[in-house]
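Encode chain A's predicted structure.
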Amino acid sequence: MCAAYAPWRDSIPGLPDVTSGLSDDLAQHTVLVVRQNEDVAGVAVLSLAGPTAILKNLAVDPGAQGGGLGKKLVEACLAVAREAGHARLHLSTHAEMHRTQLFYALLGFAEIKRDGHRVVMSKTL
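Encoded structure for chain A:
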């Protein structure tokens, strides 16, 4: 996950430390992992607690970006959330991560809230 966020870390103000609380997230939530040649190429952390599923983190290794891996991980999260009985999936991203917002919008997510640097997006399942 750290490698996926490395290009953004120094250039975006207010970007939270993505490794903070990561151990707890991995222990407490559904984790989807994609491997390529035995290496972790992508990870999604999905919370299924509460009435709305939450995509807590999505990270694709820079060497694996651009091949549709992020889209496949999001689609898998949508399917898992739907199968668990959720009607919506929410996620948050940073206001300065415009490409990320566009990525999610192209997958059918809509912005529902802004709070400082945080952009909350949602999709009906």
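The beta strands are 30-36, 39-47, 53-60, 88-94, 110-115, 118-124.
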